[in-house]
C-alpha cells in the first residue's frame, strides 16, 4: 500500500470511524465529500495575534524543572 493510501486509510478509519471494508467501498465522490469536511470552505489559519495569545496562554516552557524531564549534571550527563 502506498504512503498516500495508508494516510487516506488512516483518515477514513480513525478520523471518520469507517470500517475498513466501508472505506474500500467508497466511491471517489463519496471520499471527496468526506475529505471536504476536514477543511471547510472559509476555514483559515489563525491570525498572528491569535497565535501570540495561545503561545502566551500555553507556553512551551515551564518554570524550574519541567515534569518528566531529566536534569543534566555539570559534566553533561
UniProtKB/TrEMBL annotation:
Give one Pfam family. Answer: Phage_TAC_6
What's the superkingdom here? Bacteria
InterPro entries named among the record's database cross-references: Phage_TAC_6
Official protein name in the record: Phage tail assembly chaperone
Amino acid at each position: 500500500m502506498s504512503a498516500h493510501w495508508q494516510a487516506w486509510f488512516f483518515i477514513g478509519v480513525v478520523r471518520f470511524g469507517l470500517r475498513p471494508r466501508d472505506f474500500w467501498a467508497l466511491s471517489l465522490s463519496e471520499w471527496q465529500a468526506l475529505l471536504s469536511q476536514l477543511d471547510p470552505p472559509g476555514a483559515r489559519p489563525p491570525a498572528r495575534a491569535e497565535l501570540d495569545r495561545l503561545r502566551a496562554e500555553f507556553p512551551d516552557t515551564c518554570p524550574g524543572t519541567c515534569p518528566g524531564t531529566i536534569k543534566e549534571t555539570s559534566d553533561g550527563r
